[in-house]
Amino acid sequence: MSIKVLLADDHVVMRRGLALLIGREPDVAVLDIYMPLTGGIADATEIKSNNPDIGIVMLTFQSQFLQESVSFFQVDTRVQND
Prior knowledge:
3-stranded parallel beta sheet, Rossmann fold, alpha/beta, 38% helix
């Protein structure tokens, strides 16, 4: 069984790759919480509203966004302090 993953990042190369993935209905979306324009949490909300079965993995180096994402979604958190 294969799993389709959507990886979203604010880097220009990643944005180009995302354009190729639109409409492919991934099983899991990996998002950076700190994204330009709408932001990762807003993006995750829109993704879940269009596809409630999709898994969301949110990444951040910004600890202030962690609490916001925890309060917004039912999530399991992992904190790495490297």
